[in-house]
Amino acid sequence: MLSGQFKASSDAPYSAVTVPDSASAPSAPSTVANSPKKGGSMAEFYQLCRELFTTSLVLMAIAFGAVWLIYGLNTALNYLLGASAGLIYLRLLTRSVERLGHDRKKLGKTQLLVVVVVILLAARWQDFHIIPVFLGFLTYKAAILVYTFRTALPFS
């Protein structure tokens, strides 16, 4: 890992960054275990999870009402099935990310089974329609976009 301070070189084009030699750099290891914000980063992760779930639920309610008014109850229930599967997927994904540092070295693939089962269910039964189910599943992605825009824009 690189440690030490970086400085911009004025004689290099595009203000290249130069790394000081190891003799002048401090020798403190920069690992996650020694980081003073280790507990803080997990608290931020849990806060992000709560915010994404809350935003997903709000978007689900708004979209469910809009789809019900425009397309009818059957299509709205198809959307709700997909959105519920999206929440389950998001929960499994956050659980997998939470365990990533403790007992695992890579993410699991069990959360993908939720998508496959719901889409196959929608394709097999005549009462379900694939498009509303799939668009409902993508509601959690809309929540991620809302969070991203909210944190990236200066007026928030």
Distance between the termini: 34 Å
Number of strands: 2
Give me the secondary-structure category: mainly alpha
Average pLDDT, to the nearest integer? 77
Biggest sheet features: 2 strands, antiparallel
Helical content band: 55-70%
**Quaternary:** single chain
Q: What count of helical segments does DSSP give?
A: 5
**Spatial strand order of the main sheet:** 1-2
Order of helices and strands: EEHHHHH
Describe the structure.
It contains five helices and two strands; from the N terminus they run E-E-H-H-H-H-H. The chain is mainly α and about 160 residues long. The protein has a two-stranded antiparallel sheet. A hairpin with an 8-residue loop joins strand 1 (about 5-10) and strand 2 (about 15-20). The radius of gyration is 23 Å and the shape is flat.
Task: Please describe the topology of this protein.
Elements: E1 7-8, E2 17-18, H1 38-71, H2 73-98, H3 110-124, H4 130-137, H5 139-152
Antiparallel strand pairs: 1-2
Helix pairs in contact: 1-2, 1-5, 2-3, 2-4, 3-4
Task: Give me some keywords for this one.
156 residues; mainly alpha
Briefly summarize what is shown.
This protein is mainly alpha-helical. It contains 5 helices and 2 strands.
